[in-house]
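I am still getting used to backbone structure tokens and would like to learn alongside you. Label the sequence line and the structure token line clearly, so we can match residues to local backbone shapes. Go ahead whenever you are ready, and we will take it from there:
>
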Amino acid sequence: MYRIGQEEIDAVKTVIETKDFFKVNGSLQSCYKLEEALKNRFGVNHASFVTSGFGALVSALIGFGIGPGDEVIVPAYTYIATAMAVVNVGAIPVIAEIDETLGLDPDDFEKKISKYTKAVIPVHMQGMPCNMDRICEIAAKHGIKVLEDACQANGASFGGKLLGSIGDAGALSFNFFKIISCGEGGALLTKDSSIYEKACIYQDSSAIAYFGDQMNGFSQLSFCGNEYRGNEILAAIMCCQLEKLDSIVADLRRNKAKLLSLLGDVCVAPSNDSDGDCGIQIPFRFDTYEKAKAFSEKTGQMLLYNCGKHVYYDWAPIMEKRGAAHELMNPYNMPANKDLNHNYSPDMCPKSLDLLKRTVTYGISPDWTDEEIEATAEKIKSILNS
């Protein structure tokens, strides 16, 4: 989260004064206003405000009809929530390589497709777009659904299209660590009514059938689900935050561009769309792990290999196949999944490990002054030349 202030305080105060916090209400209807704003911004037919990016991912997979007997391809570099969402619906995550852009490697994605593959989740890590043209082309060729994990990429785009709006469905996150935030929150985006209906029933634990007329026009019957429904207080905050997104991203991009111009000839990871990148960070790429590690230690910035949570070998519940608290609910033990690809090992994605060992991301602030950018550039050049 970068910017929050009096607007959000006033919005929360107004909601509290109504004493009407539930999503379905006759007062402010902040959840619905937020969902309408998201639909308009992303150019999708449907948006659902939920409690987390994870909730959005799981709901989308339910909307796809994913379950036991299905494989879903996920990248080696992402937060564990991406893979856990797949396990949560009873399916198996198949882990694929990333490429030089730190996004899902389209070539390895296609290699990992089997007769069991039903979906792929490209993840736009740290605001960096995946190659959505190739990923969507491959997915269409094989009849595979595309779920964009844009949880770290609010406001980013690829080819002029906002991330989260390109695939069959998209997931956004609004937790504390994201560009815009309400502490915890997320959103499901889709143009497909069938996906949306199933996702809504699931994320509202079927309570959708008992409050208001939310299922009017639905063709899907209600079923038992989970509880990821958003509320009015968080939605009120997000309505304010969404209005700030463009200015935040514009300032991030400007400050990143200025810092890069001052640095001159430095080696950074390539981008699938440098104009669409959020500008959250600069991914410095070194020729050895030792050089990257030294740069990380001197700057205090993140060496991706050692980040502790975004690389597949750090996902202990996945790597050790602890997919549920009860063994009969564990997808890795389900007969329907016995022939699927869950042969995990710490060294199974060597290309990804090599790239992550040699990449350090340097965080950008949208609020840096020109003097701070110049001082940062001098600091980085001094370290690189030492």
